[in-house]
Amino acid sequence: MSYVLVAHGTRKQRGVSLIGDIAAAVSATLDRTVHVAFVDVLGPTPAEVLGARAGEPAVLVPAFLARGYHVAVDIPDHVEASGHPDVTVTPALGPDPQLVRALVDRLVDTGWRPDDAVLLAAAGTSDPGALRDLHTTAAWLSATLGSRVELAFAATGEPRIADAVAAARRTGRRVVVASYLLSEGLFQDRLRASGADLVTDPLGTHPGVTRLIANRFVRAKVSGLSRVRSR
Question: Does 169 share its domain with 221?
Answer without folding.
Answer: no
